[in-house]
Amino acid sequence: MNTIKENSKGELIIKNSRFITILYKITDKSEIDKLLQEVKKEYPKANHYCYAYKIGEDIKKSSDDKEPSGTAGAPMLNILEKENITNVLAITIRYFGGIKLGASGLIRAYAKSVKEALNLTTKIELLPAFKIKITFPYEKENEIKKEIEEKNILKKRYLDKITYEAIIPKTSSLLQKEKIKILEPTYIEKS
């Protein structure tokens, strides 16, 4: 399983239609509506804002945004799956150029647009991981920090004990040593 290192944008012109694909690195469905609204503000006169996303292995969706059913979102999602990409939202903005492409032409155009945008970014391997919650005494903080990279600590709470919400690889030795509450399976970027 892979993700993208950074957001990227690609553009194609096919029979006078302009296809702009933006790939966003995401980790949660809650980010999607905001990103779609931002794209619609940035490209207000576009005819279509088709999208596909995949988060983890099981969360995925696509939208044709008024293109004929199955000609935009599904081919976009198909490319993400064929390329083994997850935690990505692909939005393709289309400015209609006056020449109809037909169903097969649209399928090829939307798929190619996502493929081209993927070619412009670096892919990063993901490892199976868990989102966890761990509570420990203050004197163990340095020991715990050696096991969990700072970038993977999502929340910290300091009360009578310290509580972290974090992401750790499924192979982490913390799973055997400490009392940990596993919140959900996820992925972590390979270091």
Write the layout of secondary structure elements.
Layout: E1 2-4, E2 8-14, E3 17-25, H1 32-42, E4 48-55, E5 59-63, H2 73-82, E6 88-95, H3 102-119, E7 123-136, H4 141-147, E8 153-158, E9 162-169, H5 174-177, E10 180-189
Antiparallel strand pairs: 1-7, 2-3, 3-6, 4-5, 4-6, 7-9, 7-10, 8-9
Helix pairs in contact: 2-3
Molecular structure report:
This protein has two domains: 2-121, Impact, N-terminal domain (Ribosomal Protein S5, domain 2), CATH 3.30.230; 127-189. The chain is built from five helices and ten strands. It has helices spanning 32-42, 73-82, 102-119, 141-147, 174-177; strands spanning 2-4, 8-14, 17-25, 48-55, 59-63, 88-95, 123-136, 153-158, 162-169, 180-189. The strands form two sheets. Strands 1, 7, 8, 9 and 10 form a five-stranded antiparallel sheet that branches. The chain has a five-stranded antiparallel sheet with strand order 2-3-6-4-5, with helices on both faces. α2 crosses α3 (102-119). The two termini are 14 Å apart.
Quote the distance from N terminus to C terminus. 14 Å
Relevant CATH superfamily of the largest domain? Impact, N-terminal domain
CATH domain topology of the largest domain: Ribosomal Protein S5, domain 2
The CATH architecture of the largest domain can be given as: 2-Layer Sandwich
State which percent range the strand residues make up.
35-45%
Helix content: 25-40%
Please give the CATH class of the largest domain: Alpha Beta
The biggest beta sheet, please?
A: 5 strands, antiparallel
Q: Write down the overall mean pLDDT.
A: 94
SS summary, helix count = 5
Radius of gyration: 20 Å
The number of domains is: 2
Instruction: Show unreliable segments.
Output: none
Shape type: elongated
Sequence of secondary-structure elements: EEEHEEHEHEHEEHE
